[in-house]
Structure formats: C-alpha cells, structure tokens
Write a structure and sequence with these properties.
This protein has 18 helices and twelve strands. Helix content is 47%, strand content 15%. Helix 15 links the parallel strand 6 and strand 7. The strands form two sheets. Strands 5, 6, 7, 8, 9, 10, 11 and 12 form an eight-stranded mixed beta sheet that branches. A four-stranded antiparallel beta sheet has the order 2-3-1-4, covered by helices on one side.
C-alpha cells in the first residue's frame, strides 16, 4: 500500500504545481499492475483533491511548524484522507505511510502526525469547520462568488460538489428503453434506478465493458444533467446540425440516437476528435468530423447554414468539480472573465452559421453567472433584431441546473434566429 500512497502523493504534488489531473493520473496508473490497485489509486487521488481544503487544515493544525519537505506533506495528506474517508485499516494506513516517509525524522514525524490525528479527530474537525476553505474544501474566492450569486443555495451547491459523482448511463433509444435496460441490469446483479427520460443511475460504478450491451452501443456513460442537451436541441430528421466543441462525443451520440440528421462534429483538438470517432463507432452512428476552431468558422465552414447548433462552449467547469476536483484548485478568479470573453467570440461566430428560423443551444458546465445568464443577456442586447430566447421546461426555467445528488451542474439557453 505504501507504493499507492507514494504514487498518490506524487500525483497531488504534480496537480497542485499546475498540471491537469487527466494528464497526471494516467502516468501514475502505468506503475500499477492490477485493476484493483489502479482503482484504489484513482479513488485516493480524486478523493484527496475533493477534500484538499480540509486535509490542509488538519495538517497545519497537527504540525508545530511548516514542513520543509513538500513531498512528505503530500504523503501525509494522502494518509489523512485514507484515515478519514476510506475503509482501509487505520494501522495499515499509518504503517505504510511511515514506511513510505523514508528514514530518520521523516518516519517519526509521519507516525506522530497520523497518531495524533486519530486521537484529536473531533478537535481537528472543529478547527477545520471554522475555516470556510476547509469546511467546504473550495478556495475562498470561489465560495464568496457562490454566496453572492446564490444566497439561498450556495451551501447545498458546495455540499453536492463534495459528493462522489453518480454513475449514470444514457440508454440508446435505438436499442430499447429505460425500463428494458433496468431489467437487464437487474438480471446482471447491478441495482439501478431511472433518473431521466433516457437515464439510469447505478448504485455503484462498475467497469464499463461489464455493462450489458455497452460494447454493442446500447448504453453510454453520461451524466443526467448533460443528457438535457440533445433533448433541448430537439434536432429533427433531415436537418443539418452542428455540434461545436464536440469532444469527447457524448452529446454528439445522443443527438444521433434521437434523430437521423446530417451532423457535423467540430473540435479544435485532433486527439479529442478521435475520441468522438471512437464513441460513434461503438454506437454504430455516423457524423462528419471536422478539426477546426468554433471561433474561426471561415477556416472550415462550407458556407451552408445549419438548422440547429449545439454550442457547448469551453468554460470554468465549475459545475462538474466533483468529477474534475483539480479544477477548483487550479482556477484563478480572473479565469472566469477570460472564459466569458472566449465564449462571446464563439457565440458571435457560430450565430453567423445558423439559418434564419434556426435554433442555437448555448450550453456550459459552469454555475457562474458571467459565463451563463450574463453571457446570454449580453448576446441578446447585441442582437435585438435577429435573436430571441426560447422557454425551457422545468427544472430549467432559468436555464440553470445546479449540482445535486443525481446530476452535475449545467446551464442551457435556447436562442432562435428570427
């Protein structure tokens, strides 16, 4: 287990130095041989990042002076996470952390810190709860922004962001319905429940290739909140549809499952576009894949307008931090304005590609107003003569879908070209 702890500590150190988790973790996983070890490492790293604010507060309270050895600090955070949030035997966690710490004073300090944590847990929880960044395990600027924007709901948003994300599937309606797939899951010994028109959520995550019909394209992994996109876009058979910023292809596949359309899947990143191809191949569906920048359609557009456009634009990812827990620690306050500026450019560029009478669905996985409703209001103010905002069904009347137990956080706005 001490190898797991060292790898997890190294991954945390790399992420907090500025590297994205989706790039760091695969490198760490290469050092492990079994699926069980790789799953354990992933759980430890993701969980430690979700709870990092609390781990920092505990460690600071347990140390008499700041550590001069950063690597030991990350190792202790990993061990504290295991003691507090996993079922690993406490004696094994402590023993392995002491072993991984090395020699001399490092071993003694690791043993003292972890033993003291076990003895002082209640006191340390009170210390952490008194600090907003530790209580909610988010940066203070992030918490303040949510408090200002959601004075009645900011606490529930942060609580949901600390949960383990649900494992939700989208049932391919070309191969059956939710009721039928729930029966297949039950027969496979996989308890699940319906969480949307095409969505089922399993009680626990399992390897995808063990899911009934996954390899045949009968289901895909997709958050229930993300599944709103294709339903709201409501593409009709025969229409020309653009999925801008399409990778990794979850929404692309859902659009095609719902209707036979002429779909163009656009992404600026060739490697990510290959993932769209892989997903469509598994679903036995076809689209025109184009490598290009949504902000510069003159470089790739053939001049033929689209009937519907999904503008799932780059954003802060503030609504999906439990799936991407590195985001909250790597983002800076001025990043939000930079995303908003980029989104405005893309929105203007894509609007020119939309046919008169067509529909553009603006979508983000953000919960910050500057990227969401503020962005749409500004766009409508610039387009008083050729744009109107469509109404959305409950629970999306204002466009916001805030993080909860059943889904992540998203924002949607329907814009029609008049």
């Amino acid at each position: 287990m001490h190898k797991l702890q060292k790898l997890a500590a190294g991954a945390l150190e790399a992420v907090l130095a500025g590297s994205a988790l989706h790039l760091v973790l695969p490198q760490s996983l290469q050092h492990l041989n079994t699926p069980g070890e790789r799953g354990a490492l992933q759980d430890i790293v993701y969980g430690s990042l979700r709870q990092l604010g609390r781990l920092d507060a505990w460690l600071a309270a347990l140390l008499e002076r700041p550590l001069t050895d950063p690597q030991l600090g990350w190792l202790l955070r990993v061990a504290l996470y295991q003691l507090a949030y996993t079922r690993a035997p406490a004696h094994a966690v402590v023993h392995n952390a002491v072993t991984a710490a090395g020699h001399g004073w490092r071993r003694g300090l690791a043993n003292a810190v972890l033993r003291n944590f076990q003895r002082r847990r209640a006191e340390l929880d009170r210390i952490a709860d008194a600090q907003p960044s530790a209580r909610w395990s988010h940066p203070e600027w992030w918490i303040a922004r949510l408090q200002a924007q959601y004075p009645e709901r900011w606490q529930s948003i942060l609580e949901a962001s600390l949960l383990h994300p649900p494992f939700t599937l989208r049932v391919n309606r070309r191969h059956g319905d939710v009721a039928g797939y729930l029966r297949r899951l039950n027969e496979a010994g996989l308890p699940a429940r319906q969480t949307g028109p095409d969505a089922v959520t399993l009680d626990r995550a399992v390897p995808v290739h063990g899911l009934p019909g996954f390899d045949e394209g009968h289901v895909s992994v997709q958050d229930a909140g993300a599944q709103w996109a294709a339903r709201l876009l409501d593409a009709q058979p025969g229409e020309r549809v653009l999925d801008a910023c399409a990778a990794p292809g979850g929404k692309t596949g859902h659009i095609l499952e719902r209707a036979d359309v002429a779909l163009t899947a656009l992404d600026v990143d060739a490697a990510r576009l290959a993932r769209v191809r892989d997903n469509l191949d598994r679903l036995r569906l076809a689209a025109t894949l184009v490598e290009g920048d949504a902000a510069h359609p003159e470089r790739w557009w053939d001049g033929r307008p689209f009937d519907r456009i999904l503008a799932d634009v780059p954003c802060s990812a503030s609504g999906v931090t439990r799936r991407n827990p590195d985001v909250k620690w790597l983002r800076r306050p001025d990043d939000i304005a930079q995303f908003a500026a980029q989104q405005a450019v893309m929105l203007e560029a894509l609007w020119r590609l939309l046919a008169p009478g067509g529909t553009l669905l603006y979508a983000t996985c953000s919960i910050f107003d500057e990227e969401n409703d503020g962005q749409v209001r500004a766009f409508l103010a610039r387009h008083p003569d050729d744009a109107e905002r469509g109404t959305l069904p409950e629970p999306l009347s204002d466009g916001s879908l805030l993080p909860g137990a059943e889904h992540d956080g998203f924002f949607y706005a329907l814009l029609r070209k008049t």
